[in-house]
C-alpha cells in the first residue's frame, strides 16, 4: 500500500500527469491552448443524447467536467496555471496533485480521488 501511494505522488522534477481544473465547458479550449504550447493532454469524453423540442441531439461532453489531464513537470505546470486558464486540483494537504505516469490509469485514479 505504501508503494502505491509513492507511485501516485511523483517527484517534482519528473514528468508525470497532473489534473488541471478549468471552468466547465472550457476543457476543449484549454486542451487546444496546451497543444499549441506543446503539452500532451487527455480529457476522456462521453456521448450523451438530449431531447430538445422532440428532437434527439448527440452531444460529446467530458467525462470529468472541468478537468483536463496534462503531462509535464511541476515547473511547466506552474506556467500553465499562471496563464489563468487553469488551476491545480489539490489534495487535502494543499499540494499539487500528480496522479500516475501512464495515461491508461488516469480515469480510475481520478475516480478514486473523488470518493
Notable characteristics:
115 residues, alpha+beta, Alpha-Beta Plaits, four-stranded antiparallel β-sheet, disordered N terminus, NusG-like N-terminal domain-containing protein, NGN-like_dom, transcription, NGN_dom_sf
Sequence of strands across the biggest β-sheet? 2-5-1-6
**Strand pairing plus helix content: what structural class?**
alpha+beta
Write the CATH fold name. Alpha-Beta Plaits
CATH class: Alpha Beta
Q: Low-confidence stretches at least 5 residues in length (pLDDT < 50)?
A: 1-12
Domain unit count: 1
* CATH architecture identity: 2-Layer Sandwich
Q: Biggest sheet: strands, sense, closure? A: 4 strands, antiparallel
According to DSSP, the number of beta strands is 6
Helix content: 25-40%
| CATH homologous superfamily assignment | NusG, N-terminal domain
- The geometry reads as globular
Report strand %.
25-35%
Mean pLDDT: 75
**Alpha-carbon Rg, integer:** 15 Å
Amino acid at each position: 500500500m505504501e508503494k502505491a501511494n509513492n507511485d501516485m505522488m511523483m517527484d517534482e522534477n519528473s514528468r508525470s500527469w497532473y489534473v488541471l481544473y478549468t471552468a466547465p465547458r472550457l476543457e476543449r479550449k484549454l486542451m487546444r491552448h496546451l497543444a499549441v504550447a506543446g503539452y500532451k493532454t487527455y480529457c476522456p469524453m462521453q456521448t450523451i443524447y438530449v431531447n430538445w423540442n422532440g428532437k434527439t441531439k448527440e452531444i460529446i461532453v467530458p467525462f470529468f467536467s472541468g478537468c483536463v489531464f496534462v503531462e509535464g513537470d511541476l515547473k511547466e505546470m506552474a506556467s500553465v496555471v499562471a496563464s489563468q486558464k487553469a488551476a491545480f486540483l489539490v489534495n487535502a494537504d494543499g499540494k499539487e496533485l500528480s496522479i500516475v505516469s501512464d495515461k491508461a490509469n488516469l480515469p480510475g485514479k481520478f475516480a478514486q480521488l473523488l470518493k
